[in-house]
Amino acid sequence: MKRIAILGSTGSIGTQALDVVRMHPDEFEVEVLVANRSIELLIAQAREFRPNAVVIADETLYPTLKEALADEPIKVYAGAKSIEQIVGMSTIDIVLVALVGFSGLRPTLAAIEAGKTIALANKETLVVGGEIVMAAAAKKRVAILPVDSEHSAIFQCLNGERHLTPKRLILTASGGPFRGYTAKQLEKVTPQDALKNPNWSMGAKVTIDSASLMNKGLESIEARWLFDMAPEKIDIVVHPQSVIHSMVEYSDGSVKAQLATPDMRLPIQYALTFPNRMPSPIEPLDFMKYKTLTFEEPNKELFRNLPIALDSIKRGGNAPCIMNGANEIAVAEFLKGNVSFLQMPDIIEETLSKCNFVKHPSLDDYFETDKEARRIAKEAIEVL
């Protein structure tokens, strides 16, 4: 049995990962569950799966969690440091990193240092510190298995072709709920509108990023590091049906694609069971339902977050870290109703123009950059 630590067990990816565990109880054992603040769900998960340990990131909730699980033989911890320490437990085989945003970087590095296989669902870890993370994984000979549907698709298309260098990686995008909108229409959209993704069930932050196309920018940066591809060899196409999850083009002109019904449990299961494939209860792909598959260019003029993200990886250094920190603040404030949809790229651009640029950042530089970017983004919002 594979013993799993799920960082972010109460989020969208974490809850679907536990669905996969329920499907294959003889294959997986939940060793650790980690949540940010969703304490009631964490308690319910702990009682169902009876892990060795649970961690709540918000330390103020520790007494409540400790008391609630007092009758269970489960160790209870709290705080960011505990998350970093617990991933090194000798009883863990694979760490699923499904934390939201920048918070995934340190635990991922700690798990790599401990020699654990990483199932990565936190793209910001590679957006911010891709060079450091991939170097650490290479040094420790740790596998990083992608969980995002697009990167899982590319990973699957590359299997058996590893001795070849792909000519091009092609990431597909649903286009989000505002595909085809005009600038005038986008001026009036609400957070509730943006949270209605047409094909995928995701957490709030990822869903907003999908609506703004920032998610494709982040995924391009992640793909750059995961697959060691130059940014100019990574393309994005809008594919509204979300049946083709991504593609790889080879030097002979052949293009391999991975197709499946849109369901995140499939890439989650593939990462957790790799190199094996196992039965899955997801709905089989009905080609009669999808008689037409369409593709179009993303609208980079209207959805400016995408070119902003792509420019940041071309600039290099700590620019993606600046962009990511500003975006996390912009998304959070949009969800609160404090900024409009079209103001988010303005905030990110303002932050990129003012934040200190570091060409060759260290790990400490990334954390300082993140703090500075968030401060500058908040100041930009105050004067909107």
Question: Main attributes?
Answer:
384 residues; four-stranded mixed beta sheet; globular; single chain; 16 helices; seven-stranded parallel beta sheet
Q: Would you write up a description of this structure?
A:
The chain is globular and about 55 Å long. The strands form two sheets. Strands 4-3-2-1-5-6-7 form a seven-stranded parallel sheet, sandwiched between helices. It has a four-stranded mixed sheet with strand order 9-8-10-11, covered by helices on one side. The chain is 45% helix and 14% strand. It has helices spanning 12-23, 39-49, 62-68, 80-86, 105-113, 124-140, 149-158, 183-186, 191-194, 204-212, 214-226, 265-273, 305-315, 319-335, 344-354, 363-382, and strands spanning 2-7, 28-35, 53-56, 75-78, 94-97, 117-120, 144-146, 168-173, 234-238, 244-249, 255-259. Strand 5 (94-97), helix 5 and strand 6 form a beta-alpha-beta unit. It contains 16 helices and eleven strands. By secondary structure, it is α/β, with parallel strands linked by helices. The model has no long low-confidence stretch (mean pLDDT 95). The N and C termini lie far apart (54 Å).
Topology:
Layout: E1 2-7, H1 12-23, E2 28-35, H2 39-49, E3 53-56, H3 62-68, E4 75-78, H4 80-86, E5 94-97, H5 105-113, E6 117-120, H6 124-140, E7 144-146, H7 149-158, E8 168-173, H8 183-186, H9 191-194, H10 204-212, H11 214-226, E9 234-238, E10 244-249, E11 255-259, H12 265-273, H13 305-315, H14 319-335, H15 344-354, H16 363-382
Helix pairs in contact: 4-5, 5-6, 6-11, 6-14, 10-14, 11-13, 13-14, 14-15, 14-16, 15-16
